[in-house]
User: Fold this.
Amino acid sequence: MINLAARDIKHTLGKFIVTAMGVGMLLGIVLIMIGVYRGMMVEAEILLDDISADLWIVQENTMGPFAESSRVHEDLKNIIYVMQGVEKSEAMTFQNIQLPHREKPVRVVAVGYDIYGAINPINQKRLIKGRELKTDHYEIVVTDKTGFKLGEKIELGRNIYTVVGITHNTVSNGGDPLVYISLKDAQELQFLYSNKEIQNNIARGVQNSDSFLVNTIVATVKSGYNIDEVARDIRKWQHKSVYTAKQQKEILTKNLIEKSSKQIGLFTVILVVVSTIIIALIIYTMTLEKMKEIAIMKLMGLPNSLIISMIVKETVLLGVFAFVFGNIFSHLVYDKFPKLVVLQIPDAWTLFGVIIIASILASFVGVKKVISADPAAAIGG
Assistant:
C-alpha cells in the first residue's frame, strides 16, 4: 500500500520543515517555562541545603528570614546550644544589598555568619576560586555571576571589602546571587545607624543596641533526638517560632513560589493550546490545498479511512518534528536566561505525550473536511 502521508510530505518537504520549526519554537518556549519553574524550586533550596540546619529559630509569630522580617538577639545561640538535644547553633543574617560595579550596581543577598562558628553556609564544592573568610572584617566571598574577580575591592557601607573567594551556582530563593561576609560586618551593614543618627538617638536618650541582633539562629540536632520534640521545647521555653528544615522548604516552595508556579503553569497551558490551534490551522490549510487530489482519490474508489489515515499521520509527524525542533531550540537558548532553567527528560517526555494527543485532536479539523469532500469536484476542473 502506498504511504500517502510520506509522499505528500516529500512533495512539500520545505514547507513542512519550516512549519515544524515554527511550531517547535513555541514548544521550546513551553519547555523553557517548565525549566524556569524547576529552576525556581532548585534555587529555593540551594542556601538551605548548604547551611544544612535541622532547625531555624526566628522571631515569634513570623515565618522566618526568607518570608518575613525577623530579629532575634545574637546571644540566643548560646541559650539554644545548651538546650537538650541541640548539637550546634549559630547566628546568621540575610539582607538584600547593592554592590557597586563598573557597569551598574549588582543586587545580591548577603549572608552574614560567624567565621569561627560551627555552621558554615559556604559549600566547599561550590567554591571554585580563592578561599573562605578568615578574618572578622573587610573580606567578602562572591558568586561568579556578580562579575567580580579575586582581589577586587568593593566599597560597601563605610568600609572597603576585598574579594577573597568566588563560588558557582550560589543564589537565593529569589534568584539573586549570594555573597558571604562575616557576622560582625553584616550586623554593621544591616543594623548600625549612621553617625548622625547615633548622635540624634543619644540626644533623645535612645541606646543603639540593634547591632547585637541577627535574623535567625540555625541549629542541628544530636543523633537519636527527635527534631520535632526539640523544636517544641524551644518554642515553649524561648517563645520563638521554630521551623524544621522540611517546614522551611515548604515555606519557600509553597508560600513564596506558589503564585509564580501557578502563573508559569497557566502560561504553559496557554502555549500548548495555542500550539494545538496552530497545528489544526496548518493541517486545515494543507487539507484545503489538496482537496482536488482528495476528490480524485475518492472518485478512484479509495476509502475514506485511507485518506483520513494520511491526514492523521501528517499531523502526528508534524507534532513529532515540532517536538524535536523545540528540544533543540530550548537546549540552545536556556543558558542565556538570567534565572536558572532546569531542563529534565521526564518533562520533555510528558510534553511529547501532550503534543501527540494535541496533534491527533488537531487532525480532526482536516478529517472533517476530507469526509465532506465531494468526488464530483474532481471532474469540475
